[in-house]
Write a structure and sequence with these properties.
The structure holds two protein chains of two kinds.
Chain A (H helix, E strand, L loop, with lengths): L1 H26 L7 H19 L3 H23 L4 H21 L1 H4 L12 E2 L2 E2 L3 H24 L1 H11 L1 H6 L4 H27 L9 H14 L4 H20 L4 H23 L20
Antiparallel strand pairs in A: 1-2
Helix pairs in contact in A: 1-6, 1-9, 1-10, 1-11, 2-3, 2-4, 2-9, 3-9, 6-7, 6-9, 10-11, 10-12, 11-12
Chain B lengths: L1 H28 L6 H15 L5 H29 L4 H23 L14 E4 L2 E4 H23 L1 H11 L1 H6 L4 H27 L5 H16 L4 H21 L5 H15 L15
Antiparallel strand pairs in B: 1-2
The chains are: A mainly alpha, B mainly alpha.
């Protein structure tokens, strides 16, 4: 039972990560590979606040969001000057720098040793005791985030985001401040990514930089792609599948070290198959990603 | 100090080779072929495996050939059908990420995740010159890297295949109008780029040892050198490789080796954001708004 709760918490955490990424990647056309980095910023902020200052959740959660958001807003000056594949490479650079910071800033993050002994989360004076309470909290936050994402996607603002994805120039000519909206989305997406980071740090009570690598960013992106770039429910199902897959492999008797690689091979293959079949249109014939023919501006 | 200068020149030779191999694919296919990282790693691991049965020279050559086939395989199995469906650039990049993940994990399954040494015992002795110390192997490595880059340049300049590669990267539509087969030329680009990349992987691995993910790092160094220098200009790329190697070795020399990666990517981001054409490059990609 405990084990099942553990898996459900992981599903919730990855759902939040992937849905918050889809705000940038699916709606606005900003496919970022720095998401695991911002997730890590959230986790480290919570861990440091909790171990050094005994901060409760109602303090560490906003603090983590502010840290992550401030970082994202700062780097967005550079990152948002690029688009499409250059944007991905740029965010990949951000991801490596964030990882390098977690891995090397010994005074703050204790480097590869990681931060151990993170106390259980306490919310308004009440300490979360067991897995079930963590699951309830995580599920509640996931639901909130899901509703928020759904409302954004159905709002007029969501349509503006889609317009930017389809044609930035058109959005600008229709009087939208494209730069400001993109900065906002990039920042907000990073802020949302820090939320599961806080929950993750408290739940595992130990974090180290290896959880927040480039590979993890690719993993989160592949959940978004496999789930269907803007399909919130699809993303949830994909997250569940991805988290449960290693358990499935273990269930049929594949040893753990093999299963880790097999899982990655499975999602790699899925990623190729899904993109090769066509990101452009979903079953309803809606455009999922902008089609920019390769062009050479001389 | 001369030791640092030597190390800078040594690293930049390898970075230049990798950047050149990658640029060959990038300028013809026009998307970020991340799976190239796995091709680089496969070259190094292939030479390691094959050298158990063969002397190292033929084993390395065979490994380069195999890696070239893998690169070509990516094009034939995935990219070609995506191109026929007119997928956006972004989809190609994401698909190539998927291919990279698959290939890298296959290598991990076969070889384990530990650092493996393919360092040869007969590394050619050590030499001392002007206070710098280096091995014969390093000299040979630099020599081979430079020979391969020059050979590629000569090929691009003087042969029919090279000319069609250049034509396709300059102006695909006009190239096709004049009878250059785009599909065939792309295949040629993938074969040659992958072969050169695998050669770069072997040379790098001979000097430092390899892990299944080292290709990703080496590729990104090559990409940084390519973007900093400017896509499509070999002189620019050589300058980019030199700048990158200088930055890395100075960081290690004056500060701490732990921060070399952070410095590398800061350089990349600064160039991507404010000088996306590199300091020598021609215009290849737009930066909007």
């Amino acid at each position: 039972m405990d084990y099942l709760i553990h898996l459900l918490i992981l599903v919730c955490i990855y759902t939040m990560l992937a849905q918050s990424l889809s705000l940038g990647a699916g709606f606005t056309g900003m496919v970022s590979l720095a998401h695991a980095g911002f997730w890590g910023v959230g986790a480290y902020t919570a861990a440091i606040l909790a171990t050094r200052y005994d901060a409760p959740l109602q303090v560490s959660m906003p603090a983590a969001m502010v840290c992550s958001g401030a970082l994202a807003a700062t780097v967005s000056f550079a990152v948002l000057r690029t688009i499409e594949d250059y944007f991905i490479v740029c965010t990949l650079g951000i991801q490596v720098i964030l990882f390098s910071f977690m891995n090397n800033a010994m005074d703050l993050t204790r480097g590869p040793l990681g931060i151990a002994g993170i106390p259980p989360a306490s919310l308004f004076g009440r300490e979360l005791k067991d897995g079930l309470e963590y699951l309830m909290l995580t599920a509640a936050v996931t639901t909130l985030l899901w509703l928020l994402m759904r409302n954004i996607s159905r709002s007029g603002f969501g349509r503006i985001l889609l317009t930017i994805q389809e044609d930035e120039l058109f959005a600008a000519s229709a009087g939208r401040n494209v730069r400001r909206i993109k900065t906002w989305v990039f920042t907000f997406s990073a802020m949302l990514a820090s939320v599961p980071g806080v929950l993750y740090a408290h739940y595992f009570s130990y974090i180290d930089p290896t959880s927040f690598t480039v590979a993890e960013s690719i993993f989160i992106l592949s959940i978004v792609i496999i789930g269907g770039v803007r399909q919130l429910k699809g993303i949830f199902l994909a997250a569940a599948f991805m988290v449960l897959l290693p358990e499935l492999l273990r269930f049929i008797g594949i040893p753990d070290n093999l299963a880790a690689h097999l899982r990655q091979i499975v999602y790699g293959v899925l990623l190729v198959v899904v993109t090769a079949r066509g990101l452009r249109r979903n079953s309803a014939g809606q455009k999922l990603m902008v089609n920019t023919p390769p062009q050479n501006v001389n | 100090m001369t030791q640092v200068v030597f190390n800078i020149i040594f690293s930049s030779c390898i970075y230049l080779l990798v950047a050149q191999s990658y640029a060959l694919i990038y300028t013809t296919a026009r998307f970020f072929h991340i799976a190239h990282a796995a091709v680089i790693a496969l070259g190094a691991y292939g030479s390691l495996w094959l050298s158990e049965f063969l002397p190292f020279g033929p084993a390395a050559l065979l490994a380069v050939g195999l890696a070239a086939m893998v690169g070509l395989g990516c094009e034939l199995t995935v990219y070609r059908s995506m191109r026929n469906k007119q997928q956006p650039n972004l989809a190609f990049l994401i698909a190539s990420l998927g291919i990279y993940v698959v290939l890298q994990n296959l290598v991990s399954l076969a070889a384990g995740d530990e650092l493996v040494n393919i360092f040869r015992p007969d590394n050619g002795g050590r030499y001392h010159w002007l206070g710098a110390s280096f091995s014969g192997l390093q000299l040979v490595t630099m020599g081979i890297a430079l020979i391969l880059v020059s050979a590629l340049l000569l090929y691009l300049q003087f042969t029919a295949g090279g000319k069609s590669l250049r034509a396709l990267s300059e102006n695909p539509m006009l190239a096709e109008v004049y009878g250059v087969s785009a599909a065939g030329t792309l295949r040629l680009g993938f074969i040659m780029g992958s072969a050169l990349g695998a050669a770069g992987g072997i040379l790098y691995g001979l000097n430092t040892g390899i892990t299944p993910t080292f290709g990703f790092q080496l590729l990104l160094y090559g990409v940084v050198a390519m973007i900093v220098g400017g896509v499509g200009s070999t002189i620019g790329m050589a300058g980019g490789a030199l700048l990158l190697a200088t930055l890395q070795h100075l960081t290690a020399y004056l500060g701490d080796t732990r921060w070399t990666d952070a410095m590398t990517y800061t350089l990349l981001i600064l160039f991507l954001a404010w000088r996306p054409l590199g300091f020598a490059g021609r215009r290849l990609k737009k930066v909007s708004l």
